[in-house]
Prior knowledge:
Blueprint: H1 9-29, H2 45-108
Amino acid sequence: MRAVKPNGSSEIDQxxxxxxxxNIHELTRNSAAFRQPENGDGETxxxxxxxxxxxxxxxxxxxxTELQGLRKKLLSNSNRIQRDITExxxxxxxxxxxxxxxxxxxxxxxxxxxxxx
Length: 117
């Protein structure tokens, strides 16, 4: 407390102290200004945001895992298709060689007598 001053300022000081005391009392009584807002479940906004951030992170990790699986599948299919193309190319070359052999063999056959009507 302050000492009483002779020029009448003690009344002002007391009034100021009273106002400050009431304001402090009001703030401590209504401490909602210092609390975080709650949602309907009694959970604070910060807790809700943290929970949602973890859920979002889990969803992202799940999507990453799914995309990695799809990437492996695409690589596997790509390798299979490449093998199929290689096999097809080899078979095509073999067919072309057989066609050439057959064509050459047909040329070597004796000609048949022509039939006139």
